[in-house]
């Protein structure tokens, strides 16, 4: 059932010593039998009498906790998307006016050094407009065609390797049984690229990124239960996501990279959501995994 669990051992010793009851959720580490971490509702009660007897009751609530977290991510994504749209509307309208006024002023100026200033104004407004377009993401519905997920991942790997991160190791653990899926190739490449680049930045060019694919059955995304989904995992052995950012990493402009924009994760979440999927993550020092959950059946999505 479980290997040596220091937390559980401490709980048993405390109940045995005090006679108090214990009831709370605890996390059980992976074992040879259970590859994934489990969350259980644990209750420990003293049975009394002369012998040191304890009753331990455990209920596996991993899936329930995961569904609650997925729903929280969906709510976060919806709030982030609404915030982006409002922000884009508030920024783009005055930017158009500023650019137009700078162009009119440029025509009235005779001296070249003065026109340099208006050129800066026009250039900066164009840059901000481009940033807003990045926030909004590519428009229009996905152009779905049958694609091989692994070919898209290998394409992203070639892009990353072209950046000459010589100390970066990329390992593959693909499920060859995954079928072709109707997806928008460009949007999926962008989502994968955002996540792999984030992992590379977290490693600062030194470490291992593992790309993994699996077919998962009977998986619920939001309130929709899917018979089979593709789970694409992007894992790195970096320092992990800081605790104070874990609840907000999918909001725009949230980043630990001084040179980053904080748009990579929310943009990737938006692109995956257009395919009826969801991105979630698990992070601790030495192991951070982002899971891209994509339904195999894309009809009507």
Global structural class = alpha+beta
CATH topology of the largest domain: Heat Shock Protein 90
Overall average residue pLDDT? 80
Low-confidence stretches: none
Give an overview in words.
With 301 residues, this protein is α+β, with helices and mostly antiparallel strands. It has 3 domains: 6-60, no CATH class; 66-136; 144-295, Histidine kinase-like ATPase, C-terminal domain (Heat Shock Protein 90), CATH 3.30.565.10. Helix content is 42%, strand content 27%. The protein has helices spanning 6-18, 62-108, 112-136, 149-161, 185-203, 264-273, and strands at residues 22-28, 38-46, 54-60, 144-147, 168-173, 181-184, 207-221, 224-236, 278-284, 287-295. The strands form 3 sheets. It has a 5-stranded mixed sheet with strand order 5-7-8-10-9. A hairpin with a 2-residue loop joins strand 7 and strand 8 (224-236). Helix 2 runs antiparallel to helix 3 and helix 5 runs antiparallel to helix 6 (264-273). The protein is elongated and about 100 Å long. The chain starts with 5 loop residues before the first helix and ends in a 6-residue tail after the last strand. The mean pLDDT is 80.
């Amino acid at each position: 059932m479980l290997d040596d669990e220091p937390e559980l051992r401490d709980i048993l010793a405390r109940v045995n010593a005090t006679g108090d009851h214990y009831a709370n959720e605890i996390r059980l580490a992976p074992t040879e039998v259970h590859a994934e971490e489990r969350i259980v509702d644990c209750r420990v009660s003293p049975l009394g009498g002369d012998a040191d007897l304890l009753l331990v009751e455990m209920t596996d609530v991993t899936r329930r906790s995961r569904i609650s977290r997925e729903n929280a991510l969906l709510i976060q994504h919806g709030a982030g998307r609404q915030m982006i749209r409002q922000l884009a509307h508030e920024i783009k309208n005055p930017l158009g006016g500023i650019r137009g006024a700078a162009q009119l002023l440029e025509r009235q100026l005779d001296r070249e050094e003065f026109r340099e200033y208006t050129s800066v104004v026009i250039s900066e407004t164009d840059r901000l407009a481009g940033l807003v377009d990045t926030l909004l993401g590519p428009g229009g519905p996905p152009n779905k065609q049958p694609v091989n997920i692994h070919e898209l991942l290998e394409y992203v790997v070639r892009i990353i390797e072209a950046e000459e991160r010589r100390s970066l190791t990329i390992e593959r653990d693909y499920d060859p049984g995954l079928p072709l899926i109707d997806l928008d190739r460009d949007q999926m490449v962008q989502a994968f690229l955002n996540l792999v680049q984030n992992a590379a930045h977290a490693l600062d060019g030194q470490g291992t990124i593992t790309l993994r694919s699996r077919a998962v059955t009977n998986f619920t995304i939001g309130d929709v239960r899917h018979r089979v989904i593709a789970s694409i995992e992007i894992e790195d052995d970096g320092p992990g996501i800081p605790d104070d950012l874990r609840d907000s990493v999918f909001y725009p402009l949230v980043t630990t990279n001084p040179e980053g924009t904080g748009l990579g994760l929310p943009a990737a979440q938006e692109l995956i959501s257009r395919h009826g999927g969801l991105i979630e993550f698990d992070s601790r020092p030495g192991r951070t995994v982002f899971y891209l959950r994509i339904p195999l059946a894309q009809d009507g999505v």
